[in-house]
Amino acid sequence: MLSQEIRRNFLKYFKDHNHRVVPSSSVVPHDDPTLLFTNAGMNQFKDVFLGKTVRDYKTAATSQKCIRVGGKHNDLDNVGHTSRHLTFFEMLGNFSFGDYFKEKAISYAWEVSTKVFQFDPEKIWITVFREDDEAAEIWKKIVPASRIVRMDEKDNFWAMGDTGPCGPCSELYYDRGSKYGSAVSVKDDTAGERYIEFWNLVFMQFNRDASGKMTPLPKQSIDTGAGLERVVALKLGVDNVFSTDILQGIIAQTEQVSGKKYNAHDQEIAPAFHVIADHIRSLSFAIADGAQPSNVERGYVLRKLLRRAVRYGRMLGIQDPFLAKVLPRLVALMGEDYPELKASENRIAEILTLEEESFLRTLKRGGNILSAVISDAKGRPHKEITGEEAFKLKDTYGLPLEEVLLIAKDSHLTVNLDAYQLLEEQAREKSKAAHIKEDQAVEDSVYKDFAAKHPCKFVGFTDEKIDAKVQGILINGAFVKEMHAGDEGFILLDQTPFYAEKGGQVGDTGTLSHDQTVFKVTDCQAPYPGVVVHIGSCQSGTIRVGDLLTASVEHGRRQMIQNNHTATHLLHWALVQVLGPHIKQAGSLVEATRFRFDFSHHKALSKEDLQKAEDLVNEKIRENKPVKAYELAYEEVQKMPEIKQFFGDKYGAKVRVIDIEESKELCGGTHTSRTGNIGYFRILKEGSIAAGVRRIEATSGKAAEEIVRAHEKDLEAKIQAQMEEKKQIEQHLKAARRIVLKEMAQSLIQKASHVGSIPFVASIASVGSDELGALAEEISGRFSSGVILLALRSEGRCQVLLRVTADYVKKGLNAMQILKEVAPIVGGSGGGKPEAAQAGGKSPEHLEKLFEKVQELLICER
């Protein structure tokens, strides 16, 4: 595949010319709040160009995943309808951070263009900034002066922002020939069809201040970018980037899904194929890197992309969710070079389908609202759909303006386009105002000069207590010579065992001391590379620059932090086992008593999933695995997929690996020596913090035990309260039941009959087995003379109770004898006293016969 061949050969060329091949950073710039998406190869090196950090390499090359769909780089409306616009593209680039400059950059670009890309040298044109004589003279050694064109600042001068690093550009163009126009040079080609720009070389040469004055940078740098898709299109000699191999592969899959045949010249359906092919790439790579469609910021952009793809899918007759059916072809084409795509395939498919289903429901609902809008418009004098209505249908319900216009025309209506366009403009301005200015230069840190002279060495992986020299003291943001008791400020040492807050792990606390001098460290931070500030207050004595102090970390707190940090690695591993390989860390905070772990996942975790993850972590703790820490060459790590590394993080030539057998991660934090030291792990809470990002809060060791104990106490208190409540309810029920029994007794007495002259109360009662005696008592209290016969029946059982009042006992009636005689009727036997007897039986269906027999006996014994 040509795209893969060019990508790999480009990187190999620069690797052979002593450049570090750096992996593409995430398209979701987690560490850069000024960008919605990574939109250029230089994004991941911005801090190097600004002088904020220093890498262990001075030259680099990348193939960077880019998305341009927001801010000043917004190509969305053009995608599908032009030959070159894409929202997702790959940017090939080489970079120099104070190493080589114009001459080598130009030499590399020419050699790559003619030998790696194998472009015809006679067809390559060059543009330079109008004032850049240096670049023009270098190019004249390579190409004829007639093919070198000087351009204005608008075309050939680059700036990171209104202030900060900037410099002239030199661009390489390819002449596609007279077939594409009669222009005789790049400057004359106003249509931009004959001469195609394929590589931009930025010479980062000056620093511009607020007044506009430009001064030379101390370290001049190079930033270049060549669009892979454009290079491939030129190589293949095709008119359209959608005719290149990767995009053609996706289009072929869309043909299978839709059943429609692609024709690049058919302007009815070709744009639909183009939109789907482009948008599936942006969506898939963004989701793989941790983003997800939502209603805010980059999530809103992705939702807009997906809905646009769905609408164009409907133009191909696709009515059901389909993007997940196109996805496998994309993964097959690009997954080998971008393994994060392959690892996230199932999750991407699920999110795309869920989002499509949601939008299809919205479209259906929007259709109903459109009917109401049309009905209202027909009732107006001007037969017009208002601008507000058209904008709402587009912005809220995803119905494009052109669709609204067609439906309006069919209904003999018009649309107020002036009002609509005004609302569109207001929405654009609002979006622009909300978007943080991209590539804004940052002023130099107060620590920059200090770091160059007095870098601090961290020795805390092996030591928690050392002697260190005071290199600087800061009070109220200014460097001073000494600090006295009661003063608050920062102490800077030549070396330190204190871990400065980084990568989610909080800073250490402890003391800096000597004789009677004590400085209490309440926090430790690294505000600038090479600088570690010990934050706190002088408790006693005086501290001077040059003093030798004993730096001592608070051991117990450090140990708890280390345990929790190792637990985050185990939790990360466990979540991958339970939920799948798409799980990626999206942030963390490791403290002494608890920690939180953010990760990419599109839905809430079930109780069962959380329990499984918790069990897996505790299992590894009980196994008491050794926690190994060692360094490897980053180039070697890139060939080891079992070691987790985080896209978007910046790594040097040497990286530190935390290895717990099953779990291997790149990490610069402190860790415990064995998993058994963690003791016990407990998940406290799980929830959503953003679209597609979940958060687990957890703890370990003593803190986890205390939480369990607190939960047990809470549980005991709840059980006790429930028992008390149950007791009260039972008492209320008994009282209520007594009232029911009294009413039942009264009713039975009122219905009493006579057997001969004997008053007789009889009933097969609907009461509980424990209530039959109570009912008899209630009747006896109000029935002074006669016989009471009660029974109840249940499943396969029955109970019978017979009572005779004292006056009839004296007359010879005996309850026990009567019941003994009749009990066999119900398959049972009875016993008791003359005045009261009871029996149980197994044939409740014969109770009526028993009642008849009792009455016969009463007549006989009367």
Number of helices: 24
Q: Averaged pLDDT, please?
A: 88
**Share of β-strand residues:** 25-35%
CA-based shape:
extended
Q: Would you identify the regions where 5 or more consecutive residues have pLDDT less than 50? A: 432-444
Question: Please, could you describe this protein's structure?
Answer:
The chain is an alpha+beta fold and 862 residues long. Helix content is 39%, strand content 26%. It contains 24 helices and 37 strands. The strands form nine sheets. Strands 1, 2, 5, 6, 7, 8, 9, 10 and 11 form a nine-stranded mixed sheet that branches. The protein has a six-stranded antiparallel beta barrel with strand order 15-18-22-21-20-24. Strand 15 (465-475) and strand 16 form a beta hairpin. Helix 8 crosses helix 10 (323-334) and helix 20 (701-750) runs parallel beside helix 21. The protein starts with a helix and ends with a helix. 39% of the residues are buried. Residues 432-444 have low confidence and may be disordered.
Describe, in short, the structure shown.
With 862 residues, this protein is an alpha+beta fold.
Write the layout of secondary structure elements.
Layout: H1 2-16, E1 20-21, H2 46-49, E2 59-67, E3 69-70, E4 73-74, E5 88-97, H3 102-116, E6 124-129, H4 133-140, E7 148-151, H5 153-156, E8 157-159, E9 164-175, E10 195-208, E11 214-227, H6 228-236, H7 245-258, H8 270-288, H9 297-315, H10 323-334, H11 339-343, H12 345-378, E12 384-385, H13 387-395, H14 401-410, E13 414-415, H15 417-434, H16 448-453, E14 457-458, E15 465-475, E16 478-480, E17 482-484, E18 488-493, E19 495-496, E20 510-514, E21 517-528, E22 531-540, E23 542-544, E24 548-553, H17 555-579, E25 585-590, E26 595-600, H18 607-622, E27 628-633, H19 634-637, E28 654-660, E29 663-666, E30 681-690, E31 693-700, H20 701-750, E32 753-755, E33 758-764, H21 772-782, E34 787-794, E35 797-804, H22 806-810, H23 815-822, E36 829-832, E37 836-841, H24 847-860
Parallel strand pairs: 1-2, 6-7, 12-13, 14-19, 33-34
Antiparallel strand pairs: 2-5, 3-4, 5-11, 6-9, 8-9, 9-10, 10-11, 15-16, 15-18, 15-24, 17-23, 18-22, 20-21, 20-24, 21-22, 25-26, 26-31, 27-28, 28-29, 30-31, 32-33, 34-35, 35-37, 36-37
Helix pairs in contact: 7-8, 7-10, 8-9, 8-10, 8-12, 9-12, 10-12, 13-15, 17-18, 20-21
